[in-house]
Design goal:
mainly alpha
Length: about 280
């Protein structure tokens, strides 16, 4: 615990808490809309934003936010008013973001190794300014998903019914995509752009094994994400691994335990049913 006395570890711990809460908070709605790969697509778009920051000497976190949000809006427009299917639009963002990121990085005079801290995370090198941005954006994501949970759930459950209820479907659909883009940039320094989607999806999948209502799934996913992020960070220090992959491995471990517990409970209930 003495390592927590260092400033860089205090920054890293705060960032892990915010990331662990915000990623599953918006990931619950992404999974409900069957867009589990949205994080991957927007993560690669954010890579272009990082490279743009390197090219223009602007803070990469700021340019990543702008480019990722722009990509999220474009994706939602293509899905809602265009003739492009959701998976095809995601594929174009995936490949275009990756190609654009590498090309702009080369134009900036850097090589692919420069992108490693963004691809796989570099939480212990986070500055005070980076932390402030992460905290502010993360709290906005958490507060928005909790405040608008009934409306967003109605949209994810049945768009036609939500439209009948008077919910602005297109606006809220775009809001989910934008929140996902912001969350990806928040988690960029914690777990990295290549693994951020896992932190948005895996805690939700684990929570679904243990809960029955959407509200409880939402809260449980945030709790699992928080546990995975904090324990993954602390474990990575002890075993000398990168925090991002360690956090994801722990989240996957929680999912396996939850799935086994759910399976055992289901088997036991079937065995006891005839006795009733």
């Amino acid at each position: 615990m003495s390592i927590l006395s260092y400033e860089f570890m205090q920054y890293a711990l705060v960032a892990a808490v915010i990331t662990g809460l915000s990623a599953p908070a918006v990931g619950t709605f992404v999974v409900q809309r069957r867009l589990a790969l949205l994080g991957d697509g927007l993560g690669h778009v954010a890579l272009t934003g990082v490279a743009l920051g390197l090219l223009t000497n602007v803070a990469p976190l700021a340019t990543a936010v702008v480019v990722a949000v722009g990509g999220a809006i474009l994706l939602e427009v293509l899905r809602s008013v265009g003739r492009t299917s959701g998976d095809l639009a995601l594929a174009m963002l995936f490949y275009g973001g990756l190609a654009g990121g590498v090309m702009l990085t080369n134009l900036a005079g850097e090589n692919a190794a420069t992108l490693n801290q963004y691809l796989f995370g570099s939480i212990i090198t986070m500055s005070g300014v980076d932390l402030a941005v992460v905290v502010v954006l993360g709290l906005v994501v958490i507060a928005t998903t909790i405040a608008l949970r009934p409306q967003l759930f109605a949209l994810c459950q049945d768009e036609s019914q939500a439209r009948v209820m008077g919910i602005p479907v297109r606006l809220y659909g775009m809001l989910i995509a934008v929140l996902a883009a912001v969350t990806i940039t928040v988690a960029m320094r914690t777990v990295g752009l290549l693994l951020v989607s896992a932190l948005m999806v895996v805690p939700v999948a684990a929570a679904q094994q243990l809960t029955r209502s959407f509200r409880s799934t939402h809260l449980a996913a945030m709790g699992i994400g928080l546990f995975s992020a904090v324990s993954g960070l602390l474990a990575s220090v002890q075993i000398d691994t990168q925090p991002g992959p360690t956090i994801v491995v722990i989240a996957l471990g929680v999912f396996i335990v939850a799935a086994l517990a759910h399976g055992l409970t289901h088997v036991r209930s079937r065995q006891e049913a005839p006795r009733g």
